[in-house]
Amino acid sequence: MTGSITLFSTLAVRKALDDVVLAAFTADTGIAVHTVFDPTVQLVRRIDAGEAFDVMIGVTGSFDPLAERGIVDLATRTPIARSGIGLAVPPGAPLPDIADKDAFVRTLLGARSVAYSVTGASGIYFARLIQDLGIADRLNERATIIEKGFIAEAVVDGRADVAIQQLSELLFVPEARIVGPFPAEVQHYTEFSATLAAGAASEEARAFVDYLTGPGAAAAYRRTNLETA
């Protein structure tokens, strides 16, 4: 099999794809994969602007409105992995206590600045969480709020001393120290699925979705702080 496909993918699975899955898939099948990586919200904006894709990997629930608009084939939606949210601190910084909800809140309130994204799934959840915890006003008056990208960069360059993002995305900034996942009481898992574009029923696109659920991909997910779906 030869040819190529265009993949729109959330950042949460990028490390697994870049490190292992894309090269292995192409080596095994001869199919080239052209990639666009962005948070799911940004991918939808690209679609709204008329950009085309064959396969999309995004937050599982994000495909329902796209299906209603005839953009994706919901019958092909395939869960592949999920991620919890974690914290990172600057290189060399001591690891703060996040053993339970109370310690987690103390760590957030004691930070000079907490960095999070306004468009990523982790940031959207975190913004709602701090509202529910009653600390949003205090945190946001000194927060480092970022449109998109790898949030741990903010603790490396000094803009913040705590970064919040999917655990798999924190790995993209190896200089930062990953503290660990949110405590269970406030943890939130986001599931990611692959879905074909409506009309993208090519053998190449279907083969790629199948590959994303295979043992090689599953091992890559586990090595990059993801859990298999």
From TrEMBL:
- Which Gene3D superfamilies does this one have? Periplasmic binding protein-like II (3.40.190.10)
Q: Which SUPFAM superfamilies match?
A: Periplasmic binding protein-like II (SSF53850)
* Domain of life per record: Bacteria
Please provide, alphabetically and separated by semicolons, the GO molecular function terms listed in this UniProt record.
Answer: molybdate ion binding
One Pfam family in the UniProt entry: SBP_bac_11
Which InterPro entries does its entry note? ModA/WtpA (IPR050682)
What GO terms describe the biological role, i.e. biological process, of this protein?
A: molybdate ion transport
Q: What PANTHER family does its record include?
A: BLR4797 PROTEIN (PTHR30632:SF11), MOLYBDATE-BINDING PERIPLASMIC PROTEIN (PTHR30632)
Record-given protein name: Molybdate transport system substrate-binding protein
Q: Which organism is it from?
A: Glycomyces harbinensis
